[in-house]
Amino acid sequence: MRKLSEILGTHNTTVQRWSKGKQLIPNNLAEWLEAQAKFRLEHPLPKGWEENRVPPQEEL
Question: Which residues of 21-34 are buried (b: 16+ CB within 10 A; e: fewer)?
Fold first, then answer.
């Protein structure tokens, strides 16, 4: 949820409230999130991509 709040430029608490049903997700954002989810389902990561990836660096 933290990453999503960073992407959206909103506080993490807001995203947590959305996920728990304590606050409504704005309609235009809900539509955008649904489109993102649909895209990911229709376009999964390619098989075998992990073999050549560079692992993320640890934060110092």
Answer: eeeebeeeeeeeee
Q: Token digits for 2?
A: 């933290």
Residue tagged 């990453």 (tokens): 3
Task: Report the distance separating Cα 18 and Cα 22, nearest Å.
Answer: 6
Half-sphere exposure of residue 52: CA atoms within 13 angstroms, side-chain side? 4
CB distance 18 to 27 below 8 Å: no
- Give dist(CA 54, CA 57) in Å, integer: 9
The string of pLDDT tens digits covering residues 8-59 is: 999 999 999 999 999 999 999 999 999 999 999 999 988 888 787 777 776 6
